[in-house]
């Protein structure tokens, strides 16, 4: 459905892979105003179809690929797209956000989104050029790794003059084909990693999608947008996190800080410190392996690394991979981590879930629960093991199911580190209580970002008391809503760090920063007021360029308060969909290791006070005691029809 | 004067090109003046740990102390 707003192409295509029928999916301007784009748009589409009885691997599931209104408008770090589906890993809705340039080219093809349903009878890849959909056989691509697949597709898109037609691609590797529950979808070197989206694509018999075209991406007020964007870029380049730390060290630069703050997951989250962390640190990566920084389209941050492994230049690991395949399995061989990171991307498998499943298996073996031959710090044969997982051979077939299912079979649920079936990120939450809450309540499972990333206040940015529960629930809700909306607009979540004034991040020892650190936990009531009545904030914050950028790109009115309300709507929408699949308070849990066992035996607060936090959080969210949105709240958020 | 071992992390390590050095100082303020290539203003913003514990600028150093100097970092 055409739109009167800028930033949107005004069309979402639905492709039924079983019948090969292509149709336009209606999405009105009223829906755009409420659900914006990205993961929120996808949740609206999924919410209109899923009843709560469907399975991830079934004709009833959908793979919904969406862009945001800022995608491709020139706004900083706004080339992103989102993939949502019913996750085979959790059984609930998952959303996975990805950089690169597929999102941009999807819009150049004239589309805001793509809905894939059904199952091809034979392996297939789809080409979309200026809205025109062509199905191609992919028998010869099936079995190829992700870079081989993309290279082969480039050959097919080569024009008579020998040049490859400009395009964006997504594809799966062998892990997706073989339905490893945490298989990823790869786009160039970027990865839609979490939740098993690649396994759903594999079930669909869909190897790849290539998009391209020459449609113009409309911007409501081009002149103002250009001026604002220039200012925005300058701000991000001057900010200590987005202009210095991330460009110089990437996300891997956090390893040392995490070690000092006791939040570096080590030996399957049994400790928050790794004695040999320096050998697998961001500093060492930068000093000895980094060749060049890379960034997505229109991104001034350029957080990605290119490293050399066995004479080949490949993408370097993110923090999560570095930590979980480093100290997580007591491995101090950085070169091995670089190699595994590359191999997992090639096989199309989420590095976080793969690493945590591996560390669970090692501990299960150590404790005599499962005789699998895997031991902490013994790293020989792990490359082969990852292949076995992708091709579901031997023990790999079992590991392909993830730590939750393995712990149900072999025991050790207390150290199977997942939430709702999805393995946790690299931050050990017993010394980051707010993040612990976020992991537990996150809609997609053990995710630091969907969880609100409160660790940015709890040691990685600011230095708020790490173990207190005061204020954490309200702050978690605020950051969840904020990040929900940033993601929906098509921007990278790293732009959210600019929400923190530069001076606070740059001067951690200044009196005002120390004051903020001390006062923040006791500002819960003020944060709650803001969360409850965001419409009172009818303004643009000087440090938060997103709202004005959104207005200039789309022509929709967007104050900071409205922005937060939209994020709240998105978060509750996913919760409502998950309710249909049985989510309530009893599913917002963490493994016993994190809530019952002290990280530091001399510090009684070094565990996640989850029940206490959940109670406050549900109240702050306006949910009932069972953790479900009330009718009153749904009405307020205009979700009563969902 | 106490002889201490200093370890550097984060952006400051890339800036100095050093991962560690030894220094003699009585206080952290005195120590911060000895970081090669780092101005006193920049040094003021470094996070400091002495023997694994966060330390204030007036902290008295003892021989054999291990001091960590780290640039502020966040977001991942």
Based on the model shown, name its key terms:
heterodimer; A: 642 residues; alpha+beta; Aldehyde Ferredoxin Oxidoreductase Protein, subunit A, domain 2; Aldehyde Ferredoxin Oxidoreductase Protein, subunit A, domain 3; 3 domains; 6-stranded mixed beta sheet; 4-stranded mixed beta sheet; B: 76 residues; Ubiquitin-like (UB roll); 5-stranded mixed beta sheet
**Strand arrangement, major sheet of chain B:** 2-1-5-3-4
Percentage of residues in strands of chain B: 25-35%
Number of domains of chain B: 1
* Averaged pLDDT of chain B: 91
Order of helices and strands of chain B: EHEHHEEE
Low-confidence stretches of chain B: none
Per DSSP, the total helix count of chain B is: 3
* Largest sheet geometry of chain B: 5 strands, mixed
Number of helices of chain A: 26
Largest sheet of chain A: 6 strands, mixed
Q: Based on the structure given, which CATH architecture of chain B is correct?
A: Roll
Mean pLDDT of chain A: 96
- The SS-based structural class of chain B is alpha+beta
Structural Rg of chain B: 11 Å
According to DSSP, the number of beta strands of chain B is: 5
Strand content of chain A: 5-15%
> What is the CATH homology-level superfamily of chain B?
Beta-grasp domain
Fraction of residues in H or I helices of chain B: 10-25%
Could you characterize the architecture of this molecule?
The complex is a heterodimer of chains A (642) and B (76). The mean pLDDT of chain A is 96. In chain A, helix 7 packs antiparallel against helix 22 (546-554) and helix 12 (334-347) runs parallel beside helix 14 (382-391). With 642 residues, chain A is α+β, with helices and mostly antiparallel strands. In chain A, the strands form five sheets. A six-stranded mixed sheet of chain A has the order 2-1-6-3-4-5, sandwiched between helices. A four-stranded mixed sheet of chain A has the order 8-7-12-9, with helices on both faces. Chain A has a three-stranded antiparallel sheet with strand order 13-14-15. Chain A folds into three domains: 12-212, Aldehyde ferredoxin oxidoreductase, N-terminal domain (Aldehyde Ferredoxin Oxidoreductase,  A, domain 1); 254-423, Aldehyde Ferredoxin Oxidoreductase Protein, subunit A, domain 2 (Orthogonal Bundle), CATH 1.10.569.10; 432-636, Aldehyde Ferredoxin Oxidoreductase Protein, subunit A, domain 3 (Orthogonal Bundle). Chain A is built from 26 helices and 17 strands. Chain B is α+β, with helices and mostly antiparallel strands. Chain B has a single domain, classed as Roll (Ubiquitin-like (UB roll)). Chain B is 21% helix and 33% strand. Chain B is built from three helices and five strands, in the order βαβααβββ. In chain B, strands 2-1-5-3-4 form a five-stranded mixed sheet. Chain B is globular and about 35 Å long. Chains A and B meet through helix 8, helix 9 and helix 10 of A and helix 1 of B.
């Amino acid at each position: 459905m055409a739109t009167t707003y800028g930033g949107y192409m005004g069309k979402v295509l639905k492709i039924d892979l079983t019948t090969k029928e292509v149709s336009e999916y209606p999405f009105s301007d009223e829906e755009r105003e409420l659900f914006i784009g990205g993961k929120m748009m996808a949740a609206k589409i999924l919410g209109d179809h899923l009843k709560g009885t469907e399975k991830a691997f079934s004709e009833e599931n959908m793979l919904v690929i969406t862009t945001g209104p800022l995608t491709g408008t020139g706004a900083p770090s706004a080339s992103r797209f989102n993939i949502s589906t019913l996750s085979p890993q959790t059984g609930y809705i998952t959303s996975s956000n990805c950089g690169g340039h597929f999102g941009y080219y999807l819009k150049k093809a004239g589309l805001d989104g793509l809905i894939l349903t059904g199952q091809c009878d034979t392996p297939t890849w789809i080409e979309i050029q200026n809205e025109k959909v062509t199905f191609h056989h992919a028998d010869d691509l099936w079995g190829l790794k992700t870079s081989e697949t993309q290279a082969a597709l480039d050959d097919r898109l080569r024009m008579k003059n020998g040049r490859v037609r400009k395009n964006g691609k997504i594809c799966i590797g062998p892990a997706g084909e073989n339905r490893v529950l945490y298989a990823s979808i790869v786009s160039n070197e970027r990865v839609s990693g979490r939740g098993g989206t690649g396994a759903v694509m594999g079930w669909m018999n869909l190897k790849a999608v290539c998009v391209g075209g020459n449609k113009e991406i409309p911007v409501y007020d081009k002149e103002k947008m250009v001026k604002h964007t220039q200012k925005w870029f300058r701000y991000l380049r001057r900010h200590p996190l987005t202009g210095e730390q991330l460009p110089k060290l990437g996300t891997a630069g956090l390893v040392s800080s995490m070690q000092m703050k006791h939040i570096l997951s080590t030996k399957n989250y049994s400790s928050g410190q790794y004695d040999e962390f320096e050998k697998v640190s961001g500093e060492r990566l930068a000093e000895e392996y980094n060749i060049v920084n890379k960034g997505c389209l229109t991104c001034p941050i350029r957080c990605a690394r290119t490293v050399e492994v066995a004479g080949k230049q490949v993408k370097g690991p993110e923090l999560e991979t570095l930590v979980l395949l480093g100290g997580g399995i007591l491995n101090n061989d950085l070169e091995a981590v670089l190699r595994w990171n590359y191999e997992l991307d090639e096989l199309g498998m989420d590095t976080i879930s793969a690493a945590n499943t591996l560390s669970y298996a090692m501990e299960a073996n150590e404790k005599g629960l499962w005789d699998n031959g895997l031991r902490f710090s013994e790293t020989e044969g792990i490359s082969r093991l990852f292949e076995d997982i992708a091709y579901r051979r031997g023990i790999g077939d079992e590991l392909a199911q993830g730590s939750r299912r393995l712990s149900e079979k072999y025991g050790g649920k207390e150290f199977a580190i997942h939430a709702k079936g999805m393995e946790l990120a690299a931050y050990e939450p017993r010394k980051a209580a707010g993040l612990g809450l976020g992991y537990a309540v996150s809609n997609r499972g053990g995710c630091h970002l969907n969880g609100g990333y409160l660790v940015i206040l709890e040691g990685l940015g600011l230095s708020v008391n790490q173990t207190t529960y005061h204020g954490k629930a309200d702050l978690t809700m605020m950051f969840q809503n904020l990040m929900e909306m940033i993601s929906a607009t098509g921007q990278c979540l790293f732009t959210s760090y600019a929400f923190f004034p530069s001076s606070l991040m740059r001067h951690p020892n200044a009196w005002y920063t120390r004051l903020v650190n001390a006062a923040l936990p006791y500002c819960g009531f003020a944060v709650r007021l803001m969360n409850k009545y965001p419409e009172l904030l009818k303004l643009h914050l000087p440090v938060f360029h997103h709202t004005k950028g959104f207005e200039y790109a789309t022509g929709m009115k967007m104050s900071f308060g409205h922005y937060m309300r939209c994020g709240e709507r998105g978060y509750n929408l996913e919760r409502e969909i998950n309710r249909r699949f049985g989510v309530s308070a009893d599913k917002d849990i963490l493994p016993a290791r994190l809530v019952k066992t002290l990280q530091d035996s001399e510090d009684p607060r070094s565990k996640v006070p989850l029940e206490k936090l959940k109670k406050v959080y549900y109240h702050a969210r306006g949910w009932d005691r069972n953790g479900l949105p009330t009718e009153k709240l749904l009405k307020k958020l205009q979700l009563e029809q969902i | 004067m106490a002889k201490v071992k200093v370890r550097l992390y984060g952006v400051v390590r890339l800036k100095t090109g050093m991962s560690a050095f030894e220094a003699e100082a009585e206080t952290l303020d005195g120590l911060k003046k000895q970081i090669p290539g780092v101005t006193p203003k920049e040094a003021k913003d470094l996070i400091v740990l002495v023997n694994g514990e966060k330390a204030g600028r007036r902290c008295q150093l003892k021989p054999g102390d291990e001091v960590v100097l780290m640039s502020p970092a966040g977001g991942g």
